[in-house]
Design goal:
This protein is of the alpha/beta class. It has 3 domains: 124 residues, Rossmann fold (3-Layer(aba) Sandwich), CATH 3.40.50; 118 residues, Transcription Regulator spoIIAA; 171 residues, no CATH class. Helix content is 36%, strand content 15%. It is built from 14 helices and 15 strands. The strands form 5 sheets. The protein has a 4-stranded parallel β-sheet, sandwiched between helices. A 4-stranded mixed β-sheet has the order 10-11-14-15. Helix 9 packs parallel to helix 10, helix 10 packs across helix 13 and helix 12 runs antiparallel to helix 14. It is globular and about 65 Å long. Bound molecules: iron/sulfur cluster. Iron/sulfur cluster binds next to loops.
Amino acid sequence: MNVLLIEPPYRNNFPPLGLMKIAAYHRDFRNDFVYFSKGKLTAAAPQIAWDRVYVTTLFTYEWRRTVETIEYAKTLVPAGQVFVGGILASLMPEELAVETGITPMTGLLTDSAILGFGDRVNIDRLTPDYSILNHISYKYPAENTYFVSATKGCGMRCGFCAVQTLEPEYTPYISIAEQVREAESRYGARQNLILMDNNVLLSPHFERIIEDIIALGFGRGAMRINPQTGKPNRRYVDFNQGLDANLLTPQKAELLAKIALKTARIAFDHIDDADKYLTAIRIAESAGLDRLSNYILFNTTEFSGKGTPRRADTPHDLWERLRLNVEFAESANARRKQLGLPRFEAYSYPMRYAPLNATNRDFVGNNWTAQELKNVNLMRQLSKGVVYSRRPFFETAWGATAEEFEARLQLPRECIEHGLRAKLSQLSVKALV
Ligand code: SF4
């Protein structure tokens, strides 16, 4: 078969791992020709007749571009030969079927029978084919990264999170050694390791997972010789989907400190989680993890977070959570200075909530207005998407008090832009050194 894999032309950070696994299946188990395209085929694509097209899907708010891509795929192959899967497809299968006439595949691709083949291969567990992306680059490039999963699922069922639909069962241990070794032998060694686990701290085998990471050459301080320059480069490990604050214990933090963890990502979903969150980052910092990044969910309705009902958040809650990070970093750094330890850094990423079936980005939470959300977005843009924990930067970009922040949310765009752009650019060097 000639198999075409298409990712719609939206912007995304990670390569399409699902399509990379489908590529591995078609090449290794069926000896098929496989080609990957980001969006429509270009003149550089092979000029051949395609037998089958797979379209992956991601953000529901990319609905329009996704539907257009599926319609395009339908023009390339006979009826019944377009297969659609991925996140949007799993969250909104009925809506997508009505819109495109194609019934999508939902959840993980655990059996090749879903694709109409009888060899019963668990495609989700295959090593992704890293070679299909040679002409496309992503923020996390496949050419220098191993993408693996040591667990699947989560089980916490937070109301705003898609994992309960995408990976409903929790799998507590998958050998990453096999995934890395196979990727290395087939596609060459990679510099860094990204674990796509949704809740690795839930695993009773967490210690074994850390041992696997160290055995693969990703212990703390690990270096690798760059084959191009001959110089050693620092390696890093990233639990990209974050670490659960509720489950971080001193023992687990000490295990994390043994690997080349670049940044400990810990979510701070609601102001009512403040105590648990602060306990978790205190544990992380005490264990020697000196770089923290946190996702701050805002613009919500009422939701259930890890089984606890949460009220809809407010602008005040958003500012307060950012402030807590700044204060924590300040006190940690005062202590570290006395002890001669490296600085502790905390980066906050305000993340705008949208319902799991939102087909655009316009959703406005109960305690927000569209104008306020636009202004938060502008402040995020002006501070390059991240809220640094250094006070001069924080107070300039986000206000010295919650009241100042709330007042700023009411200003016309131009006022914020003119007021902040120059101040932030003056600060950008001073505040961050
Ligand atoms: S703990 Fe994280 S991964 Fe698990 S359901 Fe909640 S938000 Fe999703």
